């Protein structure tokens, strides 16, 4: 039976129930949290390899249990709240960062759809879709949730009564708000070609093989989205929010324990989200055959590795260089790309 991405072509796909969506949400929370945690280990090993050192090696075979040791450390460390901080805002800021990251993932196709075997009590026969919330404005929803996530670092920096936190909060407002515009404009040209905001329609548009991938029709938009994605996820060379050499740890200076860890879970979850969006929108998405899920995993892994590679090889840039790049280089290029795309469509 030929199928496209789950949620569409309802005449050929099983009925999606609230139970299936709930199971999908639990899977996203559990698996992405685990992958985000494991991503810290992968990053340390990749950076170590590129810097000609070993990285984590002593806890478990090849250092694999270092992740468990770090998790135990975060859960058992004292949760410190500064005396002069706004306690309520200080405590909920990490929750905002982590929550918006996972809410954004609800509208992104994560893992293949499947049906739970009948022999499993209570849940047997339940169809679990690939998208927890299959929205016809999926791209707009995901970008909106990622934009809402900027309130986490912003409120965290402003609430802790620390000068480094205030500077980190100011950089949050400047960097995230600026590059949100570039992200939206970069993806607008592909939306004009596909004529939809649905990830499913983007996937179906590129089902003609590698030659039909949108990266060949929109190479400029792809590069713009990739650069903006680095800024959106606070990755090198755009990690000015917590640059240790300048602002100690910026918005996260006063955080400890699991609240500090939630910022990193949110960051790595956003890295996965940006990688999936780039793969689905520009690199062909999912094939209608089952092996397509293997290829999407490889594409996402490539983008994740690219973020680590850039951190190992690219220096930090100054805040003024960051804004110059956004408003004087990327913004004009994005607008010109939209104009050229519109002309090509009309002709």
Characterize the overall form: globular
Task: From the alpha carbons, calculate the radius of gyration and give it in angstroms.
Answer: 21 Å
Strand order of the biggest β-sheet: 1-2
Instruction: Report the major sheet.
Output: 2 strands, antiparallel
Mean of residue pLDDT values:
84
Number of domains: 1
Counted by DSSP, the helix tally is 13
Order of helices and strands: HHHEEHHHHHHHHHH
Q: What gap, in angstroms, lies between the N and C termini?
A: 38 Å
Q: How many beta-strand runs? A: 2
**What share of residues are in beta strands?**
under 5%
| Residue share in helix | 55-70%
Helix and strand content put the structural class at mainly alpha
Query: Unreliable segments (pLDDT under 50, ≥5 consecutive)?
Result: 6-12
Describe what you observe in this structure:
The chain is built from 13 helices and two strands; from the N terminus they run αααββαααααααααα. It is mostly helical and 347 residues long. It has one domain. Helix 1 runs parallel beside helix 12. The longest helix has 33 residues. About 2% of the residues have low confidence.
Describe this structure in a few short sentences:
The chain is 63% helix and 1% strand.
List the helices and strands and how they pair.
Layout: H1 18-50, H2 66-76, H3 87-105, E1 114-115, E2 127-128, H4 138-148, H5 151-159, H6 163-194, H7 199-205, H8 214-217, H9 219-232, H10 244-247, H11 257-282, H12 292-313, H13 319-346
Antiparallel strand pairs: 1-2
Helix pairs in contact: 1-11, 1-12, 2-11, 3-4, 3-5, 3-11, 5-6, 6-9, 6-13, 9-11, 11-12
List keywords for this structure.
single chain; 63% helix; 347 residues; mainly alpha; 13 helices; 1% strand
């Amino acid at each position: 039976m030929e199928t496209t991405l789950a949620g569409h072509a309802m005449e050929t796909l099983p009925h999606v129930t609230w139970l299936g969506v709930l199971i999908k949400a639990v899977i996203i929370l559990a698996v992405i949290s685990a992958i985000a945690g494991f991503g810290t280990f992968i990053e340390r090993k990749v950076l170590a390899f590129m810097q000609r050192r070993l990285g984590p090696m002593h806890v478990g075979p090849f250092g694999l249990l270092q992740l468990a040791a770090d998790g135990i450390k975060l859960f058992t460390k004292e949760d410190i709240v500064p005396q002069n901080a706004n306690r309520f805002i200080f405590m909920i800021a990490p929750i905002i960062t982590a929550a918006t990251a996972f809410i954004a993932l609800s509208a992104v196709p994560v893992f293949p759809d499947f049906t739970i075997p009948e022999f499993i009590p209570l849940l047997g026969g339940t169809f679990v879709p690939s998208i927890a919330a299959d929205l016809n404005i999926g791209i707009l929803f995901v970008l909106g949730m990622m934009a809402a996530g900027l309130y986490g670092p912003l409120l965290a920096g402003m609430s802790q009564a620390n000068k480094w936190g205030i500077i980190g909060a100011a950089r949050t407002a400047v960097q995230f708000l600026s590059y949100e515009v570039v992200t939206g404009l970069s993806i607008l040209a592909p939306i004009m070609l596909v004529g939809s905001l649905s990830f499913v329609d983007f996937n179906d548009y590129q089902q003609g093989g590698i030659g039909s991938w949108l990266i060949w029709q929109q190479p400029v938009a792809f590069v713009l989205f990739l650069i903006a994605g680095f800024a959106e996820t606070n990755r090198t060379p755009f990690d000015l929010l917590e640059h240790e050499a300048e602002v100690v740890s910026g918005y996260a200076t006063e955080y400890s324990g699991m609240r500090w860890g939630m910022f990193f879970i949110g960051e790595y979850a956003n890295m996965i989200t940006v990688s999936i969006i780039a793969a689905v929108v520009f690199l062909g998405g999912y094939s209608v055959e089952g092996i397509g899920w293997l290829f999407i995993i490889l594409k996402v892994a490539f983008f994740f590795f690219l973020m680590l590679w850039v951190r190992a090889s690219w220096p930090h840039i100054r805040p003024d260089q960051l804004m110059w790049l956004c408003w004087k280089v990327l913004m004009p290029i994005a607008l010109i790309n939209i104009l050229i795309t519109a002309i090509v469509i009309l002709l």
